[in-house]
Amino acid sequence: MTQLRRRFASHAWVLLCGLAAAGCVQGPATDYGASRGPSLNGVSAFRAMLEERGHETRAAVRLNDAVAEWASVIVRFAPQPGVPEKDEADWYDFYLLDDPDVAVVYIPRDFEADLEYWRAILDQADPATDAELIDDARQRLEKAQGWANRLPPKAEKPARAEEWFATAPTKPGVATKLTGPWSSGVDAAAPKLPVHEPIKGPGAKVLLEADGAPLVLERTRSEGGRLLVVASGGFLLNEALANRARRPLAGRVADWIGPEPERVAFVEGFGPLGEFTAEPTLWGLLARLDGLRMVAIHLAALGLAAALYRAPRLGRPRPPELDWGGRPAAHAEALGALLARTGDRAAATAILAEYDRWRHDSNPIRASRHDRT
Fold first, then answer.
1. 316-354 b/e with 16+ CB inside 10 Å = b?
2. What's the angle, vertex CA 35, arms to CA 302 and CA 150, rounded to 5?
3. What angle, 0 to 180 degrees and rounded to 10, lies between the N-to-C axes of helices 44-52 and 247-257?
4. Which of 68, 110, 116, 244 is most buried per CB count within 10 Å?
C-alpha cells in the first residue's frame, strides 16, 4: 500500500508541476476593469491613486440602493464599448438627480493594454538569451493586434446620445496632438494615446481632444450631479499607466472627482442591474477572474492527488500481518505462513525439520519428531 501511495503521489506531483508550468506560460492576467489585482487591463493602479488622495473606495457588482446610499462617486469601467444600456443609464440619471453633489465617471471599453505589454516585451528582450520568450511574445502580439474585432457587442437599447454621448469609430491609431483644457502641461507625443472610437456629445464640454477627436467629455446636469465620460482606458488601465507621460491625465480624472475625500464605488462586470445575489457564486468568480481560475485548477489537482494517496487499493486483499506480541511462537508462525505461499510441500517440510532440530539442539532429552520413525 505504501509503494502504491508513493507512486500516486509521484504522478500527482508531476501533474502539479505541469499545471504550474502551464500557468506560467499563459502570461499575465487580462481581466478588464478589475479594481483589485495585477491584471494588465485592470484599474487597481488608478484605484490606488484615489486612495492615496484620501478617497475611500469599494468594488461593487450591482447598482442598487446600498451603492447609491454609500457612494458619492461611481466609477464605471464598462465591459462593453459605446453608450450604456438605457436601463443602466437611467439608473445613473436618477442617482445624479437624487443628490446634486454626486458624480459618475463612465469609461466605455475601447482599449486592450496587452497589445502594448507584448510590444514592450519584444523591445526589451535579448535575442541572444530570450529566443523562446521572443517567439511566444510575437505570437501573443499578433493575437492582441485584433483586439478591436473582439470587443463585446454594443448595447441593444442604448441611452440617448443627446443626454450621454455618441461614438465616431475610426481606424485604431496613436494620437500625436493633444488639445483642450486637460492637455496643458502634457507632452502631446509622449503619452502615445491610442484612439479608436472618439466620443461626441451635443452640449457637453470637451476637456481633452486627440488629433481633433474628443476623448473626454463633461456634462453638468441642471438639476445637479456631474457626469464625466472618458473615451477609453488608454490612460487609466494598469499597463497603460506604465507610461509615465500618461499619469498626469489619470491625475486629471482624480482632480475632477474632487479634492475632498469622497466615497468612490468601482462598479464591475456585466449586467449591474441584473438579479441581485448577496454573494457571487464560485462559478461566477471563476468565469470572471483568470487568475482565480488557474488557482482553482491547481487546488483541484492537489485535491485529486490527496484523494489518490488515500484511496484503497483494488484487487485481492493481503492477509493480515501476524502480531509479534512478544510470543516466541510468532516466529514459527510467520515462517509457516511464508512457506505456505511457496506451494512446495516437500521443501516446506524439510525447512521445518531443520528449524526444529536447530531449536531443540540444546535439549538432547527431546528428540525432534521429524527424526522419529
1. eeeeeeeeeeeeeeeeeeeeeeebeeeeeeeebeebbee
2. 85
3. 50
4. 110
φ, ψ at 75 (rounded to 5°): -110, 120
CATH 3.30.1120 describes domain 30-110+151-288: no
Residue type for 2, please?
A: T
CA distance 178 to 158: 29
Contacts of 153 (CB under 8 A, 6+ apart): 80
Query: Which residue carries 488608454 as its cell?
Result: 234
HEC string of 186-234 equals CCCCCCCCEECCCEECCCCEEEEEECCEEEEEEEECCCCCEEEEECCCC
pLDDT at 7 over 70: no
Strand pairing report for 226-230 and 103-107:
parallel
Longest dimension (CA), the chain: 125
Q: Which residue has the cell 477572474?
A: 289
Residue 94, class by beta-carbon neighbours within 10 Å (0-12 exposed, 13-18 middle, 19+ buried)? exposed
- Sequence-distant (6+) residues with CB within 8 A of 313 are 1, 4
pLDDT tens digit string along 232-284? 999 999 999 999 999 999 999 999 999 999 999 999 988 898 654 445 556 55
CA distance 235 to 107: 11
C-alpha cell at 334: 510467520
Check: pTM over 0.70? Answer yes or no. no
How many of the other CB atoms lie within 10 Å of CB of 98? 13
The letter for the amino acid at 170 is T
SS3 content of the chain, % helix, strand, coil (to 5): 40, 15, 45
What residues form DSSP beta bridges with 200? 166
Domain boundaries, the chain: 30-110+151-288, 327-373
* Residue 85 grid cell: 444600456
CA dihedral of residues 233, 239, 244, 250 (deg, nearest 10): 30
Q: Give me the residues paired with residue 227 across strands.
A: 104, 219
Shortest CA distance to 155 belongs to which of 90, 201, 209?
90
